C-alpha cells in the first residue's frame, strides 16, 4: 500500500500528525525526521526548517499533547456543572479517556517535561495541567466540599491517584470492564480523601 504523499500546505502540522501516528504504532525509538520526510514525500532536509532535531520534534509533540489534554480537562470541568463531585468525576473521566486514547503520547509528555532541556512553553503547559487540578480543589474548598488546608497537600494526592489509575489502564493491567467500574471507585476514593 502506497503512503499518501505530502505536496503542499502546513508541513509542520503534517510532520506532527505523522510523528504522532508513528509514536502510537512503533514508539519513540522509531521516530526519525528522515523517515517522516520520506513518508510525506519531501526532501530529507525539509523537516529541519521546523525541527532542528528529533528532540525538538518530541518536544513539539509533547507540547501539543499537553495542550489537547488541558483543553479536554477544561471542557469536562465546564460541562459538569457546579457540584465539586460531578466536576472531579468529569475531570477524572476525561483524563483516563485521554490516557487510553493517547497512551504513547502521554508517556512521552511526562518523560519530556522532566528533561532538564525542556522548553519554557512545555513547562508552562505542564504547569497548566497542575493548575486545573489545584483550581478544582480550591473551588471545592470555597464551596465547603473540600477540607481546609494547603491546596497542594490535598490536590497532589488526588492527581497522583488519578494518574496512577490511568497508568494501570493504559498498560492494560486492568481490563476494559475493570477500568469502567474501577474508575467509579477511584473517584469515590478521591472524594473521600479530600472531603470536608
Structure characterization notes:
With 196 residues, this protein is an all-alpha fold. Helix content is 72%, strand content 0%.
Kindly summarize this structure in a few lines.
The protein has eight helices and no strands.
Give the SSE layout.
Blueprint (H helix, E strand, L loop, with lengths): L10 H16 L6 H8 L13 H26 L4 H18 L1 H11 L6 H24 L7 H20 L5 H19 L2
Helix pairs in contact: 1-2, 3-4, 3-5, 3-6, 4-6, 4-7, 4-8, 6-7, 7-8
Q: Give the beta-strand count.
A: 0
Sketch the major β-sheet. none
Give the structural class: mainly alpha
Portion of residues in beta strands equals: under 5%
Question: Key terms for this structure?
Answer:
single chain, 8 helices, mainly alpha, 196 residues
